[in-house]
Specification:
Layout lengths: L13 H12 L4 H4 L23 H35 L3 H29 L7 H11 L4 H26 L3 H29 L4 H21 L3 H7 L3 H32 L5 H12 L6
């Protein structure tokens, strides 16, 4: 789809206009508004609840690497969301959607800045993107339809981000990370609201076959996102034996299960609100239930 102009300039969508104004008012600066000395070297960096009999050097190393891996995937997702929002600015039909998405581009770049600095400060580097996550981001960004880009970004990627942030807040005692998450989560919640405001009137006019196409896209994306929650990159970096992988896999399994559950609990109501869950004789709801992705 080529670039789309809105030569009318009429501000007809009150909710999107309000979200655009809110986006401007809630801007913050990663260098000025984050205390980068907060709790430095004081709190554990790991995500595992390691018990005394599990407190081995390997388990401790895995715990730190797991947090590094999770935040690295968040960082890559933020870049994907930035590029997707830029595409929405280019392709969306109305100026209100373009305006709200333009500010989102700035938000996502700020998130890239803050997570990149956190990883450098706390972990001295980052992991590359998982193949499944990279594949999904490319599918979203390269989609020719702006609404599909918005669906993938505002509902799936932002939903995954909020689920991951919730897991990090529960598991991490690092006050610097918790300060960052509070600010980023507020931005992401606003981005999801932009998606609802932009997509709801569009999806109310789609045919059954058009809705089915979007339902199938969500199922395929969820399967990809679920397959992403693996730790081969960590195992390889730490040169772990199969038996060691089994031990830390047991320790991290609870976190992985909770992340999947949290993702489902966010995606299901998002889809219901857009009219996608019950469309086509509840096709999406049945598929999610069949795949055991959520309790409906």
């Amino acid at each position: 789809m080529p670039q789309t102009f809105d030569w009318d300039y009429a501000a007809e969508d009150v909710s999107l206009s309000a979200l655009y104004s809110m986006s401007k008012d809630e801007q913050w600066d990663a260098a000025r508004d984050i205390d980068w000395n907060l709790g430095e070297g004081t709190f554990p960096r790991g995500l595992l609840n390691v018990k005394p009999n599990d407190d081995t050097e390997q388990a401790a190393a895995f715990a730190a690497e797991l947090q590094k891996w999770v935040i690295s995937q968040i960082l890559h997702g933020e870049q994907g969301a930035m590029l997707a929002a830029a595409n929405i600015v280019e392709k969306a039909p109305s100026l209100e959607i373009k305006a709200a998405s333009a500010v989102q581009v700035v938000d996502e770049m700020r998130h890239i800045e803050v997570f990149r600095q956190f990883l450098d400060t706390r972990h001295g580097g980052r992991y590359p993107p998982e193949v499944a996550l990279e594949s999904l981001l490319i599918q979203i960004i390269e989609n020719p339809d702006w609404d599909m880009i918005a669906l993938g970004t505002h509902i799936l990627i932002e939903g995954l981000a909020l689920a991951s942030f919730g897991m990090l807040k529960r598991a991490s005692l690092d006050p610097l990370l918790r300060q960052i998450l509070r600010r980023v989560m507020r931005d992401e919640s606003r981005h999801i609201s932009i998606g609802f405001s932009a997509l709801t009137p569009v999806y109310s006019e789609l045919s059954a076959s058009e809705l089915k196409f979007r339902q199938e896209f969500i199922i395929e994306a969820l399967i990809l996102l679920y397959s992403k929650a693996k730790h081969e990159q960590i195992y390889e970096r730490l040169e772990m034996t199969p038996s060691q992988q089994q031990v830390v896999g047991r320790l991290s399994g609870e976190q992985t299960t909770q992340l999947r559950r949290d993702l489902s609990r966010k995606i299901v109501p998002y889809c219901r609100r857009l009219g996608l869950l019950e469309a086509n004789q509840s096709f999406l709801a049945k598929e999610i239930a069949r795949l055991d992705l959520a309790d409906l």
